[in-house]
């Protein structure tokens, strides 16, 4: 079952892209308190989740870190390859 953090990433990504049905979010745990969340989107939507200069990706990571603090965990967001 995906965590709240994974659900948050999926919700935000689906709001940003043109093909929300292509959004895939995977979650795995590392070292007990660290979570890695991987976001994949359709090839045409890469620019929308990364943004000019990586601004959208950084904003997603910032929101995700706030959610992680609430759960007392560490998180890393990987986008694509």
CATH class: Alpha Beta
Number of strands: 3
The coarse silhouette is: globular
**Overall average residue pLDDT:** 91
Report how far apart the termini are.
23 Å
- What strand order characterises the main sheet? 1-2-3
Rg of Cα set: 12 Å
Percentage of residues in DSSP E strands: 15-25%
CATH topology: GMP Synthetase, Chain A, domain 3
**What is the total domain count?**
1
Order of helices and strands: HEEHHE
Features:
single chain; 81 residues; alpha+beta; GMP Synthetase, Chain A, domain 3; 3 helices; 3 strands
Note down, in words, how this protein is organized.
With 81 residues, this protein is of the alpha+beta class. It has one domain: K homology (KH) domain (GMP Synthetase, Chain A, domain 3), CATH 3.30.300. Helices cover 42% and strands 25% of the residues. It is built from three helices and three strands; from the N terminus they run αββααβ. It has a three-stranded mixed sheet, with helices on one face. α1 runs antiparallel to α3. The longest helix has 16 residues. It is globular.
List the helices and strands and how they pair.
Layout: H1 4-16, E1 24-30, E2 34-40, H2 46-50, H3 55-70, E3 74-79
Give a quick summary of the entry.
The protein is α+β, with helices and mostly antiparallel strands. It is globular and about 35 Å long.
């Amino acid at each position: 079952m995906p965590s709240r953090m994974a659900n948050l990433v999926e919700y935000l990504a689906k709001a940003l892209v043109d093909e929300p049905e292509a959004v895939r979010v995977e979650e795995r745990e590392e070292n007990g308190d660290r979570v890695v969340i991987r976001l994949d989107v359709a090839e045409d939507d890469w620019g929308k989740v990364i943004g000019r200069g990586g601004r959208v990706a950084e904003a997603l990571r910032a929101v995700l870190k706030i959610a992680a603090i609430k759960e007392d965990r560490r998180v890393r967001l990987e986008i694509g390859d």
